[in-house]
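subagent[fold] <- orchestrator: predict structure for attached chain, return tokens only, no commentary.
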Amino acid sequence: MKNRLSERLGAVYDLVTDGSVVADVGCDHAFLSIALVSDGRAPRAYACDVNRGPLDKASENIEAAGLSEKITTVLSNGLAGLTEPVDSIVICGMGGPLIISILQSGLGKARQAKELILSPQSDAASVRCWLQDNDFSLEEEKAVIDSGKYYEIIRVVPSEAAQGWGDGSDFSMKYGPYLLAHRDEVLIARMKKRIRVIEEILEGIDVSSPRYEELKGEEELCRNFVK
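subagent[fold] -> orchestrator:
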């Protein structure tokens, strides 16, 4: 079933530890939960969504796959509807601020899990900073291009003291400490595009402005990285 997933969901699938009971928060049509359980990677899953429409469609897909006894749909705002601990919490397809809000509201449940796998569609830096501040250690990151869009997937585990976040600089948190440390090829391609974008922006900014200095600094760091 994995081969039926998008590039992004396929990367998320790969980061789920084999044998984990999974909560897929914001499950949409439950494609990830179905693939994980169908392939035997997850013995059970909870497909959670705040909207009834997608959840009804998820239920139809789960029933069609013959997995109604192993995948439970949960109408839930974030983690609120989970009534028992799970091994893996997956949250993707949402902006960074919403992911942070979900984790903050359900912090106790998040820390009971063995891993969180997150794919923010915006403001990944803020998500990373929040995770570090709340003692989640970075285990792995993946970067993929899906339908022409760049996605990052972050896998963390709860810990007593956060580790794996590199130097914690703005640049590191923006681009991903693990991706930077492993010189991820997809990240390098993204940086090359970012350099070109910054060059165009700088042409229209006063050289004495703080924004110019900020972008110039980012450009220099990107250039040094892609060498």
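orchestrator: received. Logging for downstream: The mean pLDDT is 96. Strands lie at 22-25, 45-49, 71-75, 88-94, 115-120, 136-146, 149-158.
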